[in-house]
């Protein structure tokens, strides 16, 4: 594993879903999720270009266990686009849980991309909805701006960070996981699967800290 070198003009930092509901005390807390906030702030200051993503669900979203009678959180169900983990209600539009963590300080971020707002389909990746075909528009934005390499940080490593970086590779971008600035949920063997997927797709791993 290598340490992150100085980013260039065609590099962009993707800060994924650093929101209250994914931090300790939130409804879908990632263990130790808030510990990465100071490091992300410090890393973002080294990047001229940063995009933030924000999970943004309407109440009663189809990915919530509460929307399925008798379903337990973290169980799975079949959706038209494939198997879906059913989550606790989280990041509901306009709630405190959907807000960015108060410690996140990246005033020069150039874009906030909201995802998961379609009631019938979940959205892990910053590039596509979970049907793997409906785009968010991020790829076009990055291409028009001339970016070629995406660095991923945030929550959760094995869900939204994973699928965002995999899709970045699939779309022809270089993709880098900043491993010490992401934290996993690790449910259903998801962390091991994420690490295997990174290796298979050509996502490289670096550390922000030496």
UniProtKB/TrEMBL annotation:
PANTHER family: LD05707P, PYRAZINAMIDASE/NICOTINAMIDASE. This is nicotinamidase. It is an enzyme of class 3 (hydrolase). The keyword Hydrolase applies. It comes from the Bacteria. Pfam families: Isochorismatase. It comes from Marinibaculum pumilum. Belongs to the isochorismatase family. One of its GO terms (molecular function) is nicotinamidase activity. Its EC number is 3.5.1.19. Residues 12-208 form the Isochorismatase-like domain. InterPro entries: Isochorismatase-like_dom (IPR000868), Isochorismatase-like_sf (IPR036380), Isochorismatase_Nicotinamidase (IPR052347). Pathway: Cofactor biosynthesis; nicotinate biosynthesis; nicotinate from nicotinamide: step 1/1. Keywords: Hydrolase, Metal-binding, Pyridine nucleotide biosynthesis. NCBIfam families: PRK11609.1.
């Amino acid at each position: 594993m290598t340490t992150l070198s100085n980013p260039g003009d065609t590099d962009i930092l993707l800060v994924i879903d650093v929101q209250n509901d994914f931090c300790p005390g939130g409804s879908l807390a990632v263990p130790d999720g808030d510990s990465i906030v100071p490091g992300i702030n410090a890393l973002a200051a080294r990047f001229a270009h940063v995009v933030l993503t924000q999970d943004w669900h309407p109440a009663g979203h189809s990915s919530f266990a509460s929307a399925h009678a008798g379903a337990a959180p973290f169980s799975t169900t079949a959706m038209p686009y494939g198997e879906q983990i059913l989550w606790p209600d989280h990041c509901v539009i306009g709630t405190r849980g959907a807000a960015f963590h108060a410690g996140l300080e990246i005033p020069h971020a150039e874009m906030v991309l909201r995802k998961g707002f379609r009631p019938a389909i979940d959205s892990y990746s910053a590039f596509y909805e979970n049907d793997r075909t409906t785009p968010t528009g991020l790829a076009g934005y990055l291409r028009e701006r001339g970016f070629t390499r995406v660095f991923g940080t945030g929550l959760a490593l094995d869900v939204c960070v994973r699928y965002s970086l995999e899709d970045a590779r699939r779309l022809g971008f270089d993709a880098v996981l900043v491993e010490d600035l992401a934290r996993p949920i690790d449910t259903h063997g998801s962390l091991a699967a994420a690490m295997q997927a990174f290796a298979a797709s050509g996502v490289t791993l670096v550390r922000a800290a030496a």
